[in-house]
Write the structure tokens for this entry.
Amino acid sequence: MPKRIALCITGASGAVYAYRFLQETSRSNDVETHLVISNAGAIVIKQELGINASEVQRLASFSYDEKNFMAPIASGSFRLDGAMVAPCSMKTLSGIAHDYEDNLIIRCASIALKEKWRLVLMPRETPLSTIQIKNMLEVSKAGATVLPPMPQFYFKPKDVGEMVDMMVGKMLSIFDIDSRLTHEWGADKLALKEFEPSGATY
Ligand SMILES: Cc1cc2nc3c(=O)[nH]c(=O)nc-3n(C[C@H](O)[C@H](O)[C@H](O)COP(=O)(O)O)c2cc1C
């Protein structure tokens, strides 16, 4: 049985993270993706990626309109391995934090929280207001993983594409999906036996 993941794209900057996530998972028979793109998300996809939302939808196993409350992912009886909102706008973050389920994205995130499934939110805004920080605290207390797209410069990415892919590797690893994009600090040195076999010598 493939891993079932709901991926919701909202109108925050960073559509590329979701697009790359879908490109990676669409190659695998082990992952089934259920995609919702908000209306604002479609606008940002066009602005940032220069493509129509339909091109992103093509990469998903299943795709639903943001107002389609008849979709399987609108019910907790349709079991998921997890849900992710990436990127997550401050509006949708607020909706999830306050359980204001006026679209399928917030409904799906709310279900993930009540069912205690993995829920990953990738909020994007800067700077952050106190209200936005409080909303992140609320969703974190409720069980969500807050995953802001912050690059790991210590891995020395060569360009923006590599920075994006490192983040996508992180998104995949949170859902236990094996990927060549996942970086583990020190793994290369372990392979070269640069550390002592017993006792941590750094
Ligand atoms: C080009 C563009 C970039 C945007 N970037 C952000 C952003 O980074 N964060 C954010 O919270 N809203 C951003 N917005 C505003 C949201 O799209 C807007 O608040 C929208 O109502 C979000 O709706 P949704 O959560 O249903 O997608 C952006 C809008 C546009 C057009």
